[in-house]
Design brief:
This protein has one helix and no strands. It is mostly helical. It has a domain of 31 residues.
């Protein structure tokens, strides 16, 4: 679907690097989520504004 985001995480379970890999992945996901929240809020505002504009056009027509 257009606009979908694919996120992949690759971990190697070799014993010593596994926990570190999990922590790095968790931190990356936290950063991603923090950056995605404002995008979601902006999308909701844009959707609302588009609906208001559509209603205005209908009333004008």
């Amino acid at each position: 679907m257009p606009g979908d985001i694919t996120l992949g995480v690759r971990l190697t379970a070799d014993g010593k690097g596994f926990v570190g890999g999990v922590m790095v992945s968790a931190n990356a996901l936290d950063r991603f989520a923090g950056r995605a929240r404002p995008v979601g809020a902006a999308t909701r505002r844009m959707t609302c504004a588009t609906g208001l504009a559509e209603a205005s056009v209908r009333r004008t027509g």
